[in-house]
Amino acid sequence: MISEKIKNVLNEQINKEFYSAYLYLSMSAYFAQIGLYGFSEWAKIQSKEEIDHGMILFEYILNRNSQVHLVQLETPKFEMTNPISVFEQIYNHERSITSAIDSVANMSESDCDLATRNFIDWYLSEQIEEEAMVSRIISKLKAFGEEKSALYLIDRELGSREYERPEY
Predict the structure, then answer these.
(1) Which residues contact 32 (CB under 8 A, 6 or more apart)?
(2) How far apart are CA 56 and CA 107, in angstroms?
(3) Is the pLDDT of residue 48 over 80?
(4) Which of 34, 43, 44, 106 maximizes the CB count within 10 A of its CB?
């Protein structure tokens, strides 16, 4: 069984992961509305991954003989004016998720819950990948995004992404 403190922070993280999924779905809708269907597909796949991340935490809590507490998700609050601004907001959001996961790691270490500390390492590595991926997209958009033909190519590239279930 995990401590009440660790259980609570893990449940908060589940909510953050599901909120992230909800956020990416709202972005997917925005991109589809402006005709960037590749961007839209990329965001849908990102949403699926965030649900997977939440479910991995969900199962971990249950496997540790503890309780899952789901809470109502907030409405996503993002200003969607152009692809670059959306991806900059995504980057900031992912950095906040990284910070939250860092807190879980620190708390589990200080609580001497080595199983949870070991478990959360996967999330730390995953966040490095998430931030790097978004950073690369921002770099491309800043370098080429104003040019319509380049935006079209970036849209095609993002649309070619395929969903992969996380290997935990």
Answers:
(1) 40
(2) 19
(3) yes
(4) 43
